[in-house]
UniProtKB/TrEMBL annotation:
Residues 97-117 are annotated as: Disordered. Pfam families: SecG. It comes from Bizionia sediminis. This is Protein-export membrane protein SecG. Keywords: Cell membrane, Membrane, Protein transport, Translocation, Transmembrane, Transmembrane helix, Transport.
């Protein structure tokens, strides 16, 4: 398993977690925090200031994703000359040589064989 594959798997996991955290939030102040009491000072089930946690986790996951994407660029296996694979395929194709066109033979004798009798 290559390093790039590991980074790709980590990016997918972080992206999934980021989607979950963003979907839990409500842009109008509701979401998960309102279902646990709504007030900033109330506490229910040990959850206090859920919006702060969700906000920090969103920024943390976004930062982790950005770093993983930048680091995975270094881990990409760079083989070849840097050209496109299509261009490399065109350059390596076996071409069949074409015989040059032969011009029709010119006859210096202007009379036809029937006239020479």
């Amino acid at each position: 398993m290559s390093t790039f594959t590991i980074f790709l798997a980590l990016i997918v996991v972080v992206a999934f977690l980021l989607v979950v955290v963003i979907m839990v939030q409500n842009p109008k102040g509701g979401g998960l925090s309102s279902s646990f009491g709504g007030g900033g000072t109330q506490q229910l089930g040990g959850v206090k200031k859920t919006t702060d946690f969700l906000d920090k986790s969103t920024w943390t996951l976004a930062t982790i994703m950005l770093v993983l994407i930048l680091v995975s660029n270094v881990a990409i296996n760079r083989t070849g000359t840097g050209e496109s694979k299509a261009i490399e395929a065109i350059n390596t194709e076996q071409t069949v040589p074409v015989a040059p066109a032969v011009p029709p033979a010119t006859n210096n004798n202007t009379e036809t064989p029937a006239e020479s009798n």
